[in-house]
Amino acid sequence: MESTGIVLESVRKEYPDGTVAVDSLDLEVHGGEVLALVGPSGCGKSTTLRMINRLIEPSAGRILLGGDDVLTRDPVELRRGIGYVIQHVGLFPHRTVAQNVATVPRLLKWDRARTSERVAELLDLVGLPESDYGRRYPHELSGGERQRVGVARALAVRPPVLLMDEPFGAVDPQGRRRLQREFQALQRDLGTTVVMVTHDMREAVLLADRIAVLSRGGVLEQLGTPDQVTGSPANDFVADFLADFGEERAA
Ligand code: ADP
After folding, report:
1. Which of 56, 172, 197, 234 is the most buried (most CB within 10 A)?
2. Is the CB of 41 under 6 A from ligand 1?
3. Which of 158, 176, 192 is the C-terminal boundary of a domain?
4. d(CA 191, ligand 1 centre) in Å
5. Are residue 166 and residue 197 in the same domain, yes or no?
6. Are residues 17 and 56 in the same domain?
């Protein structure tokens, strides 16, 4: 499968109240890589992520997905082709696990057989066999299991691009490590291009091919492999950010 790259060119977001969340960001995400956006709270990570699927409209600049300007795409149709996983998954409470995972295939009017085959396959992949879990409702699952359903739902139509905002944040530490490992295997298998927001540097180091460190206003302070960022911080900001993280870990 050909992987889809993402290019942000001088992207800006100024909210109506005048807050400049992202000033002028240039960033290229290679097809098939996992890119983590890290940085202190409020530096514009989520805003950046949500401009890619047009949940937030940029004020200026261009975002290209597989070479196409996302602003030329119908937002609803665009979002169906981009997986999106957030911390509190937002499963539909009155739909079963299987129905939740089938959301996008249904919208795309896949036939019943193809949909149920895909749902079973996905639930297996995330370790929730349909025979045990398919008919349960979200409130009958643990936090980690709900998050897995969220991942399965986001991957149901094998989207070329997956956006994740603190995807494993709500899961207990042990469950998180397992989910992270499973996610990694799944991502490599599918060749999905992933942009992930995380405040957890350890998660970024573990999962990302490259890490983008942002400071307030969506300023790109460093972009590099985990080894490059942790081994040779580009400036004091990055060094301080890493040091804070080290202290947090030691605490
Ligand atoms: P992060 O994900 O890095 O924590 P965000 O992208 O959520 O940062 O926010 C970046 C900045 O934009 C913050 O100062 C935040 O308060 C502000 N912001 C986010 N959403 C809105 C909004 N809807 N209206 C006004 N300001 C916002």
Report:
1. 197
2. yes
3. 158
4. 30
5. yes
6. yes
Total domains, the chain: 2
Question: Is any ligand 1 atom within 6 A of the Cβ of residue 83?
Answer: no
Ligand 1 pocket, 187 CB below 6 A? no
Same domain? 205 vs 251: yes
pLDDT in tens, 83-132: 888 877 678 999 999 999 998 888 888 999 999 999 999 898 888 999 99
Ligand 1 atom nearest to CA at 22: 10
- Which residue CA neighbors atom 17 of ligand 1 most closely? 21
Asked, for residue 175, whether it belongs to a domain, the answer is yes
Q: In the 8-state DSSP scheme, what is residue 19?
A: -
Task: Give domain status of residue 86, yes or no.
Answer: no
Q: What percent of the chain is helix, strand and coil (3-state, nearest 5)?
A: 45, 25, 35
Query: Do 4 and 53 belong to one domain?
Result: yes
- Closest to 97 in 3D by CA, of 69, 122, 60: 122
Domain that holds residue 224: 1-81+160-251
* Local confidence band at 187 (pLDDT 50, 70, 90 cut-offs): confident
Task: Label each residue of 134-145 as H, E or C.
Answer: CCCCHHHCCHHH
